[in-house]
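Lab meeting, action items carried over

1. Structure of the two-component assembly. Owner: GW. Status: complete.
Input record:
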Amino acid sequence: MSSAVGSRASLIPAKAGIGLRFQHHHAVVEMRPDIAWMEVHTENYMGGGPPLRCLDAIRRDVPIALHGVGLSLGSTQGLDPAHLDRIRQVADRIEPGLMSEHVAWSVVDGHYLPDLLPLPMTEEALDVVCRHVDQMQSYLNRRILVENPSTYVTFRHSTIPEWEFMAVVAARTGCGLLCDVNNIFVSAQNHGWDASAYLAGLPAPAIGEIHLAGHAVRHLADGGTLRIDDHGSAVVPEVWAFYQEALARFGLVPTLIEWDNNIPPLDVLLAEARRATGFMAIAEREGARADAA
Amino acid sequence: MPTLLELQRAMRSGIVEHDSAAVAGALATGVRPDRLDIYRNTIFSGLTRALQLSFPATQRLVGGEFFAGAADAFIREYLPRTAYLDQYGGEFPDFLSGFPPATSLPYLADIARLEWAVNHALHAPDEMPLDLARLAALAPDVQGRVTFRAHPSVVTLQSNFPVDEIWRAVLDADDRALAAADLAAGSVFLLIERDPTGVEVTRLNEAEWRFLHALCRGEPLFCAVDSATDIDPAGQLAEHLAAGRFVAFASDTNEAVASPEAV
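Predicted assembly:
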């Protein structure tokens, strides 16, 4: 695959955006909030009727990124061609600035388990994911981004550090990476990884987008804690700090606030986006100072 | 070392059957198998929520706890076959009709069928109505043999119970209307469709319904007319066409179904 970014991809600016969910359709159409871009889940717009018409209307004013959650790039038995085609139909209609999917799996033997399930970090899984990223990019005739997962289990037979897995997928397929800094933080805490080393292991030029979200902390019976990536609250201070580290490493990248459970009023999402904008301004000044030195 | 397919099958069992023994051996040292419960919770709560959104009146009729139990049993038996989850739950009405704890509400499965029709209409793709000028241009002797393709949102539904009344009363939390619904009043004949303002559920008389139902099933116009006594088929057809209920037609001399592009 060519690593060239399609002209439409440039529509998503290196600014802060928000994840758009149905609850806010009406508010966005009415208020026309000042936001640089928005991202939606591709699977939410595969039918007709009011939701798609609403997104059409929003799309006239705001660039839209399509974030897929159901293609299951990590399934061994191949991609569902009908689902790939539905994705293309949404893309043809919306003309998104960016399209992305996950390094995860959801489908086995034709059963779809609606979650982003963890892959073992093996050569076999790497081959499967790369083959499917190639297929998706060919079918859509554009470059995509793939997102690093948040995970709660790891596997005995994993041989490749996750950051290296992500880097190899980008190198082999020419795809970009969607760096979810909350996911890195959650997984690093859950598995005892060094989050900074994870960032350092990712190829900076491939980073096309950053995700930020809230997560929950669950206290376990054995006295330990587990971080759950539930997108159900504000971004926590440690993740904001880690975001600054990512900006310092990758430069300014389109950054998205995701919030999928206990969805707050639109104003709260916009305030989170302004916070990201503030950190981007700081990173830009510090970058300029570093360049001048 | 399991292959990726073996691992994925073991994880499905661990998550769906709540049996993590198969996957425990593949987990890294120190990772407790009950961590799969996090995935199980996400998957089952997500699918239960999808069913709650599609079957709100069904849920209110049986109560939240009963519904959650039925949903859990349904999910284990009918995992989604596609990642397009708006299509998930089509088998739920039939499942309910065979679900022993639900037999005390004889109309429950039909309420669920009505709700599934509403859900189907809500998410159906947009399509343009057929080209009336091309239909009108057919020779009169050909017109009788015309068959139609219905708009994807159109559903015709018949029930032995006044499910439309019950459904509205339940969603409006109108206990008086619910009590007034006469279960012995006979069959109802319903048209469910999406118009620009939302999904409409309309009660037709039996003859009107049989005429529309025959056309939606792709029967030629003259057959549908034969099945519709005591109505004005020309007037009915004109109404359906004006409402955009048909998106394409075919006739003996026009085998390729004349269909505009989906929008």
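2. GW to write a short summary for the group page. Key points so far: Chain B touches chain A at residues 1-5, 7-9, 11-12, 15-16, 25-29, 31-32, 35-36, 38-39, 42-43, 46-47, 79-86, 122-127, 152-153, 194, 198 (CB under 8 Å). The mean pLDDT of chain B is 92.
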